[in-house]
Write a structure and sequence with these properties.
Helices cover 0% and strands 48% of the residues. It has 111 residues and is mostly beta strands.
Length: 111
């Protein structure tokens, strides 16, 4: 068993980052994201699947050129290699848990 509190995770941009390889050597990594209105990552992709669990707020996603909105309660499955990005829309922060099926984050930014 391995336990760590969110406040002890590295914080970059708008996310706490749990890197599985550095925390109990598990095979997943997690972004605990809280994006302010208008903020979010631009187009990028990963060589592994990603599951995004939207907890609060709303966002506008672009996945492989298709735009759609998602909000609290939605679970998005981004397949390996799919180009995706999103930004918070509305007045409240976009809060989500992004599970990367990899012990380390691997991200190719495309802009």
């Amino acid at each position: 068993m391995y336990r760590i509190h969110q406040q002890h995770l590295p914080f970059e941009g708008s996310s706490h980052r749990f890197v599985g390889a550095e925390n109990g050597d598990v095979k997943v990594s997690v972004f605990l994201l809280s994006a302010l209105p208008g903020r979010g990552p631009g187009p990028h992709r990963h060589p592994y699947d990603e599951v995004q669990i939207v907890r609060e707020g709303r966002g506008l996603w672009t996945v492989n050129g298709e735009e759609f909105e998602a909000g609290a309660g939605d679970i998005l499955v981004i397949k390996a290699g799919e180009v995706h990005g999103f930004r918070c829309i509305g007045d409240a922060p976009l809060v989500q848990v992004d599970v990367h099926l990899s012990p380390r984050f691997i991200q190719e930014n495309l802009r």
